[in-house]
Inverse folding.
């Protein structure tokens, strides 16, 4: 992880993207048209194509393997049910990611409201994190712990920008906020993330 003293430029190490399928926009649009006409095969193809991305996004936000599975399934089902209202002029994946992110944040907020869970529960329950070989991109323990200490909205921004590859204008469209707001909140989240990582490095040395 690198950055300037101002905290405005922070980059996580580039990550492999095993969920990327390289499908053409024309192929995607054809599947969506068929799905809107009721084709079960087209729906299955869309689910297969986007499942890894949906599950990965959910896991990186909620840090709970079981919850991520449920959220990804619910998001895919919601997307299929709403396919008639999808704007075919836009790419499908960001639309799906918006559903995933919203459901992930709802899950975290609901968990924090439960009386047996402290307000700081933006992070995982004990034992909820997957083993390193089960995590997307085999992220380090240090990074996972630091991400878990961010507020849910901050974590979602960092995940989508640096681990899913969205840029500020795209993030604004996905999250429904101006790009300038995205940049401001992201800079604040990255500054906090750097502080957490530096504190962990000091404590571990």
């Amino acid at each position: 992880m690198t950055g300037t003293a101002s905290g405005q430029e922070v980059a996580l190490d580039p990550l492999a993207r095993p969920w990327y399928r390289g499908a053409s926009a024309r192929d995607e649009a054809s599947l969506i048209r068929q799905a809107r006409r009721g084709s079960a095969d087209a729906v299955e193809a869309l689910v297969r194509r986007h499942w890894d991305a949906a599950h990965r996004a959910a896991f990186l936000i909620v840090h709970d393997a079981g919850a991520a599975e449920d959220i990804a399934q619910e998001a895919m089902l919601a997307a299929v049910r709403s396919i008639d209202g999808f704007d075919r002029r836009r790419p499908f994946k960001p639309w799906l990611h918006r559903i995933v992110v919203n459901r992930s944040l709802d899950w975290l907020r609901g968990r924090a409201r439960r009386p047996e869970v402290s307000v700081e529960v933006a992070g995982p329950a004990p034992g909820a994190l997957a083993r390193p070989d089960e995590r997307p991109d085999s992220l380090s323990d240090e990074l996972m712990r630091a991400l878990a200490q961010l507020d849910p909205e901050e974590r979602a921004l960092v995940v989508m920008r640096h681990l899913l590859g969205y840029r500020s204008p795209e993030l604004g469209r996905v999250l429904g906020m101006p790009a300038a707001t995205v940049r401001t909140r992201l800079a604040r989240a990255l500054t906090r993330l750097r502080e957490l990582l530096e504190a962990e490095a000091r404590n571990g040395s």
